[in-house]
């Protein structure tokens, strides 16, 4: 349970936080560390970011926040998410996200910063942050869906399916769940067959021409989450979520 790093030419970073991959604050930092290690090893040519269980990621661990007094858990989660999302983006080699089931909140942050996305045919993507009294990861959702749809999803908390993202071109391939990891490794192997130096420079150059500074943009969003916690909206949203479960 936790974060597993499988080293190799195609490295795998695997989330495993039963029952729904709601990631605690320390888990986000562990994701960042695993990606940094994988990317730093000369033999690594691509990284597959995957998860065990019925869903890729349910976002932050709200129970952890509610059982921790003050703002320590919130601040730790904020910094952890920022570190994990940045580690996906800054990884020197391409990161392929393999998404099954639900991909919510922080899961969208990870996937939106990935270079390629492969998803199972049962995968859905959403930002329920407004219902939780929070904001964040619209920066990353905007890399997956058109602008007006991104706004609709933020305001209404409606999810979209893998097939919808495939139509937008932001999910490369949709596959039955049993073939998900295999499909992700297949495209990783295609990338691994290229000159590794050229691929690393390609990743660096593509990040350099991005029109949005994703790290600064996300930290800006997080400021509003902290404001909502100071005025009580965050706690109200988290309590409603836990009461409704």
UniProtKB/TrEMBL annotation:
Pfam name, any one: ECH_1
Keyword Lyase: yes
Keywords linked to the UniProt accession: Lipid metabolism, Lyase
Superkingdom of the organism of origin: Bacteria
Keyword Lipid metabolism: yes
Family, similarity comment: Belongs to the enoyl-CoA hydratase/isomerase family.
Name of protein: Enoyl-CoA hydratase
Taxonomic placement: Bacteria, Bacillati, Actinomycetota, Actinomycetes, Micromonosporales
Gene of this entry: paaG_3
């Amino acid at each position: 349970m936790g974060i597993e790093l499988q080293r190799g030419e195609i490295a795998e970073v695997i989330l495993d936080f039963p029952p729904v991959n709601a990631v605690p604050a320390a888990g986000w930092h562990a994701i960042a560390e695993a990606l940094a290690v994988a990317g730093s090893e000369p033999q690594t040519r691509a990284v597959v970011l995957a998860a065990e269980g019925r869903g890729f990621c349910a976002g932050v661990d709200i129970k952890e926040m509610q059982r921790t007094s003050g703002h320590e858990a919130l601040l730790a989660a904020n910094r952890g998410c920022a570190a994990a999302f940045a580690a996906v983006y800054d990884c020197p080699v391409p990161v392929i996200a393999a998404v099954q089931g639900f991909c919510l909140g922080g899961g969208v942050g990870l996937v939106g910063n990935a270079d390629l996305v492969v998803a199972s045919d049962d995968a859905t993507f959403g930002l329920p942050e407004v219902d939780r009294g929070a904001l964040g990861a619209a920066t990353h959702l905007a890399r997956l869906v058109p602008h007006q749809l991104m706004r609709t999803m933020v305001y209404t908390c409606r999810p979209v399916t893998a097939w919808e993202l495939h139509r937008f071109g932001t999910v490369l391939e949709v596959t039955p769940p049993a073939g998900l990891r295999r499909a992700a490794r297949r495209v990783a192997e295609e990338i691994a067959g290229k000159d590794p130096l050229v691929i690393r420079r390609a990743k660096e150059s593509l990040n350099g021409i991005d029109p949005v500074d994703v790290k600064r943009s996300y930290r800006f969003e997080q400021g509003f989450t902290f404001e909502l916690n100071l005025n009580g909206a965050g706690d109200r949203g988290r309590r409603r979520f836990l009461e409704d479960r």
